TrEMBL record:
Keywords: 2Fe-2S, Electron transport, FAD, Flavoprotein, Iron, Iron-sulfur, Metal-binding, Pyrimidine biosynthesis, Transport. Heterotetramer of 2 PyrK and 2 PyrD type B subunits. This is Dihydroorotate dehydrogenase B (NAD(+)), electron transfer subunit. Belongs to the PyrK family. [2Fe-2S] cluster binds at C206, C211, C214, C226. Its cofactor is [2Fe-2S] cluster; FAD. CDD domains: DHOD_e_trans (cd06218). FAD binds at R45, P46, L47, S48, G67, T68. It holds the Pfam family DHODB_Fe-S_bind. The keyword Nucleotidyltransferase does not apply.
Amino acid sequence: MRQFATVLSNHPIAKGAMEMKVSVEDSVIAPGTFFHVKTSELLRRPLSVANVEGDVVTFLYKVIGKGTQDLAARRPGDVLDVLGPLGNGFPLEQTGKRVVLVGGGIGVPPLYYTRRLLTERGIKTIAILGFDTKESVFYEEAFRALGETIITTVDGSYGEAGFVTGPLADIEADVLFSCGPEPMLKAVAASHIKERFISIENRMGCGIGACFACVCEAPGGYVKVCSDGPVFRAEEVTL
């Protein structure tokens, strides 16, 4: 659904990371879905949903190129042209199971909203969040308010040194939800957790499945990340 979202706030929260809150029309927004946001560039930018409170949607994004630089320059009162919510998210029907959420960098945002909704349903969760350095860590307190949270940094400047796969090896859980860079997803998809769901981040064209800009290889063919995903069972895709 195309709509116009009003920017409520937009500010840095960590090195290279921004938090933007916008007001949108009231709608059911599943965790793990995204909005396709128009910027100064030709192609829209997919932004995953980090949180929803009433008609206020929170996006967290990393400033990389011209499109996200344009978003970083937006101020309260500005209006964004957005499509969404789009895609298929994480399944919340996990009653009686223990869920581990594993995020890397800008793949962390959709896991916060997911964890919040799981917690509200009484489902026990643990989160492992990986970042490059101490300066790039964000949303730690928000995650800790929802339960056990492990932070890792590649350079060892904060939390546990190394990658998320280190502490994940010692976690006993029934289900894994993960989002982050492809090397990380490939590693966690091969983990010992029985049920594994991964959210894939791909550059997108239309965002609604009409083009083939975001295809991902799958057993027996290809899937479209925007419309078939972005969340898949690990065995449904080939990384």
